[in-house]
Amino acid sequence: MIFGGMQRSSTIDFPGALACVLFTRGCDLDCFYCHNRELIAGDGDQLAEAAVFSFLEKRRGLLDGVVVSGGEPTLQPDLEEFLRRVRPLGYRVKLDTNGRRPALVERLWGEGLLDYVAVDVKALPADYPAVCGADCFSDVRLTIDTLRSLGAAFEARTTLYPGLDAGALGGLLASFPPLPRWRLNYFHMPGAFRPADETRLRLPALTPQSVGEALPKLLAAQPNLLHGA
Questions:
Q1: Is the pTM above the cut of 0.90?
Q2: Which pLDDT does position 53 carry in this prediction?
Q3: Which candidate, 32, 49, 29, 56, places its Cα nearest to that of 40?
Q4: Where are the beta strands (DSSP E) in 111-224?
Q5: What integer pLDDT is reported at residue 229 of this predicted model?
């Protein structure tokens, strides 16, 4: 596994668990608002896998869970092997994914290697190429449909990127059946971005106030919407 960093403790990344967050390197999307742009490339500073397992051994009984995030973890060819090594340590495992590999997610869940999955739903189908550089909404939908059919514990997540208005957000939420959780993440200006994206990044973005004003319609589409600031 190629890791670009680690957050040693988090109370917000894994529902109901005190967890560390492992950030893998490499991503097959290039969202214009990405907050982990330094992880998109597969090369760069790395955290040794041995150091990760040393940390996990020392934190047994202190941490409840491990979040494997990125970047995009499903690009890692040894992800399954890594999860099989984590399991005996007694941690619950959460996977953060962009949803482009539904078959892999299905296999990992079926093998009992995951306890929770967060699937990013970036935008409406027609907006995917402009927002994240790939036309992959159908893969994301299939990942979510698969998790639903498995009875898996999961959530969808959407970052309220600049230019996304309440009407488009409502359309996106309504394009899926009610899900166990759908989490809204409010936009914050990333520290690093492509110069060509600066104009888009400075467009208005939805705020807790504007989401609150649209909340009745949003909740009608997704009753389990999580929308706190």
A1: yes
A2: 98
A3: 29
A4: 116-120, 154-160, 182-186
A5: 64
Alpha carbon dihedral 172, 38, 93, 177, in 10-degree steps, equals: 0
Question: What residue ranges of the chain have pLDDT lower than 70?
Answer: 229
Beta strands, E only, the chain:
3-10, 19-24, 65-69, 92-97, 116-120, 154-160, 182-186, 225-226
Q: Which residues contact 151 (CB under 8 A, 6 or more apart)?
A: none
Q: How far apart are the first and last CA of the chain?
A: 33
**Of residues 199, 185, 193, the one with CA closest to residue 40:** 193
pLDDT at 150: 98
Q: How far is CA 63 from CA 69, 91, 113, 117, in A?
A: 17, 8, 17, 18
Rounded Cα–Cα distance for residues 119 and 35 (Å): 16
The pLDDT mean for the chain works out to: 97
Sign of CA pseudo-dihedral 205, 192, 46, 27: positive
Q: Which residue from 70, 36, 68 is spatially nearest to 52, judged by alpha carbons?
A: 68
Torsion from C-alpha of 160, 128, 225, 203, nearest 10 degrees: 20
Six token digits for residue 13: 């990344």
